[in-house]
Design brief:
Strand content: 25-35%
Shape: globular
Order of helices and strands: HHEEEHHEEEHEHHEEEHEHEEEHEEE
Distance between the termini: 51 Å
Helix content: 10-25%
Structural class: alpha+beta
Strand order of the largest sheet: 3-2-1-4-5-6
Length: 466
């Protein structure tokens, strides 16, 4: 028709906020807050200033459905009076609010029990000198460009034979900046952008309808796949799921496609997190320095990866980030530690402190990757007489204390070395300790997000069906 996507649907805003937050001097604000904390009686304090601008667009059946622009700022404060710690957060920066927040937080700290592991980083633990991580795309997308991308992705998905409806496409962009300052002398700032594009479509009809999606994110728009490729992949994934069958309960080799194989890395990260290990709530708590995977397996955590979605030069406590091999030749080499969990275990922080506005969270991984093996996915499947190829996992039936694993799944049945008919409503069960030992990675690793894995094969899992 020659019409642009904007002409086919209503424009809900111009893409610019009608009210802009005035710029502020973050160093001056940090100085002011830390001085107020000391004046109120805090022995130590740190403060995080987080700002974010985001643009989110949803598009369905050829028309714009929703467009929203957000601008937010939050100040997170942590104070220590001796070993007593309290936190607070505010979205306002006027002097009266800041003074009240600081005084109330220091007063609260005096009433709380002591935490023997609380405290800021020593000067020798702080990050010094920052690598250039190229996390900011200088070009802010227009609303029209987001509409075009979402429309192209949905159109490509709907054009796939077998696709019968759409739940819509989404396109997004955000820019964020955090500044961290502390009474130990640390000052650091991190800025990043994030572009996202995804689409969800349906195939089949009535109660037999199937759904699938593809969603991609990148720090720079240029690193996203073309919208048409995202849409086509979503459509093809959905169409091939039509008319799934049931299977009988049996023990078979299970092959995880890359998108779901990444979930195994998240279970690993949870099991080696400092909180779980220090409190004895991990099935890996006694395995440091031991073989957890087969020889040759490598898992890395790379906070210094250029353009990485979770890259950062320092963590939520100002400790410097370092690329690490969490698993090296199958051996577990380290825990994920912040200052407090490191002190509990008699170890140094590994620079994995996470930080929200008001307080620290549990230590967490950054860019987590299972390195590729040498076998292609096709060769990996070729000798499987009967097996299960997993493309979707549901539920969170994983016990990190025991390693017991049971998750709902759908995918495709493998027969005589070939991926065959779709399968749904089954459960994959095992134990993570044995699953890690048996895991074999394929050669098809691609970096799409902050947790990435190639196709993996694990023999001897139970697939529970009819």
């Amino acid at each position: 028709s020659g019409e642009t996507p904007t002409e086919r649907g209503p424009r809900f805003c111009s893409g610019r906020s009608a009210r802009r937050t005035p710029a502020m001097d973050h160093d001056d604000l940090l100085d002011q807050i830390l001085a107020l904390a000391r004046g109120a009686g805090a022995d130590e304090a740190d403060c995080l200033i987080a700002e974010r601008t985001a643009l989110d667009l949803s598009w369905r059946l050829g028309a714009l459905e929703e467009l929203e622009r957000k601008e937010a700022r939050e100040i997170g404060l942590r104070v220590l009076v001796g070993k007593r710690m309290a936190t607070a957060a505010s979205t306002r920066t006027d002097p009266a609010t800041l003074r009240s927040m600081v005084e109330e937080t220091v007063s609260a700290a005096r009433l709380l029990p002591e935490d023997a592991w609380a405290g800021l980083a020593r000067p020798d633990e702080l990050a010094t000198g920052y690598a250039e991580l190229d996390l900011v795309d200088p070009e802010e997308p227009t609303v029209a460009s987001l509409e075009l991308a979402a429309a192209a992705a949905e159109d490509a998905a709907r054009a796939v034979p077998g696709v019968t409806n759409s739940e819509g496409a989404s396109a997004s962009w955000s820019r964020s900046r955090i500044v961290l300052g502390a009474s130990n002398g640390f000052r650091g700032a991190t800025a990043r952008t994030r572009h996202g594009l995804g689409v969800t479509v349906l195939a089949g009809a009535g109660t037999a309808m199937q759904r699938d999606h593809v969603y991609r994110q990148a720090a720079h728009r240029a690193d996203l796949p073309p919208p048409e490729a995202i849409g086509r992949e979503a459509g093809e994934r959905t169409a091939r799921r039509v008319d799934p069958r049931k299977v009988a309960t049996q023990r078979v080799p299970v092959v995880y496609e890359p998108r779901v194989a990444a979930s195994l890395l998240r279970h690993l990260a949870a099991a080696i997190g400092g909180d779980a290990v220090a409190s004895g709530r991990s099935f890996l708590k006694d395995r440091l320095g031991q073989a957890v995977f087969a020889p040759g397996i490598t898992v890395t955590d790379a906070p210094l990866r250029p353009r990485g979605l979770a890259s950062r030069a320092f963590d939520g406590e100002g400790v410097g980030s370092t690329d690490r091999r969490l698993i090296d030749d199958g051996v577990l080499t380290t825990w994920l530690l912040d200052l407090a969990t490191g002190r509990r275990l008699g170890m140094a922080s590994t620079g994995h402190a996470s930080r929200g506005g008001a307080a620290l969270g549990a230590p967490s991984a950054t860019n987590l990757t299972l390195c590729a093996g040498s076998t292609t996915p096709e060769a990996m499947i070729a000798d499987i007489a009967q097996g299960f190829y997993v493309t979707e996992l549901m539920g969170m039936g994983v016990n990190i204390v025991t390693g017991d694993y049971s998750r709902g799944a759908s995918g495709f049945w493998i027969e005589n070395g070939q991926i065959g008919y779709p399968v749904s409503e089954v459960t994959v069960a095992g134990n993570l300790a044995r699953m890690f030992e048996a895991l074999v990675p394929a050669s098809d690793l691609e970096i799409h997000g902050s947790t990435d894995a190639p196709t993996v094969r694990i023999d001897g899992l139970t697939v529970a069906g009819t």
